[in-house]
Amino acid sequence: MVVAAVVSGAPSTVVALVRGDDVLGATRAAGTLIPGRGDRPGVVAGLAAHAALSIWWGGVLTAVVRRVGGGAVTGALAGAAVAALDLGVVARRYPAIRALPRGPQWADHLVFGAVVGGTVPACRCTRSR
Q1: How much is the pLDDT for 28?
Q2: Boundaries of every domain in the chain
């Protein structure tokens, strides 16, 4: 999960570098998710918010991949579902998140899901039928 949290920011970081945008903009935007930080985004707050969300969603995605199977593909699809929720619903209430370029943010979510799904060990569970 830690690896997924770290590498998932690669797509938006690369795009920001290529465009000459602020590479920490998405991190600061994530900081606005912390109560009381809506108008005071910061890198430390953003890292804390990202870590907490990565742990939460990593756990959810791990459970989904173990239940459904499919590894990285299932993880990427689950990451797309998380992106739809995060960027389509939650972002409505957070202008800094809403202002981020959508494509790179979706790519970050897909990478997160794929890495989580690809690193989840296969469940050796027996299911009763």
Answers
A1: 94
A2: 2-119
